[in-house]
Amino acid sequence: MNDIDNVIKDLKIFGFNIFKTSKLDGGINSTAFKIETDAEKYVLKIYNTNKTNNINRFNNEEKFLKFLNQCNFTNVPRIIKTNPRKSWILISWIEGEKIINVDRYFCKELLDFLVRLQNFRQSPFSKGLPMASDTYLNLNGYFFSLKDRLFKILNRQKELEIVNKELSIKLKNLIDKIKSEISNLLEFSMVNKIDLNYVLPQKNRIISQSDVGFHNMIYGNNEVNFIDFEYSGWDDPGKLVGDLLLQPDHKIPIKYIDVLEIFMNTYIYKIDYPNERLLLILKLTRLKWALIILNPIINQQGLSNQDLSNLLENKIKKSINYLEKSLSNLNDINKNFITKSFNKFKT
Description:
The protein has 11 helices and 10 strands. It is α+β, with helices and mostly antiparallel strands. α4 (about 140-155) runs parallel beside α9, α5 runs antiparallel to α6 and α6 (about 165-190) runs antiparallel to α9 (about 275-290).
């Protein structure tokens, strides 16, 4: 990670008269700061180049913000300055508040933004966009991704067993349950003759923020703005629907699910996207989020045994509760929205 003081020195060389710097809440891939000069406010994001993955978050966000700026989106940050070598980006500050109370208006604004993105799928500006995070062009990719997540958790199993044997057993039971559900989905795909190797063609892909939800929206001056595009790019429309409806903390409430109708009719039901394939992706997305909840167990290092036990207990409980609630949600989504909408479209 680049040192903030070194980046500030760089910015001063570029002519920014900085008098105040304050750290903002950030994710595991980057650290964000509010930068104030005598004339303007900015957000500085410094990306973690030491993180051991094959995804360049700086590259993703820079490309997607350039695309949005070139396509004249006014409700997103503007790029002010970037440094690819040192992996930082300076963007415009957006005044407002994070959305706490979700209502129909904010749900509609979110879907309107996602639909508007699709107007630029044929634009020359879209050609260099990367694939969105956790997106695979065939369904086998989603299965392999789940197995990879399971493998990383199991790699810490022995260490966790030493820390807290009882919680380690609970984790094993949870993992066994997820493994069983994965096996059931493979059987579901065979029964419904779903080709797991079928590659989603370019014409059926969409442009997506990917890390989509109300946590990446800011409301101010009677306008909804969108931030954080580290995971953005070309996406599978079914996977995006799964994230919109099944994300544990920032999903669209079921009571507002009808705001999805225009998106579904345009980007799923009017292309070669069988209902069974959509349902399979939703089921895979549910398991993905159950495992993502457990990520801190993999990533946290240097914790005391007590702190690690507390973390383990909290994440196992949250993942178990999520699996139970999301299964009920998934059944409601399939019965009361997807199946009805799909049958309506066919007639």
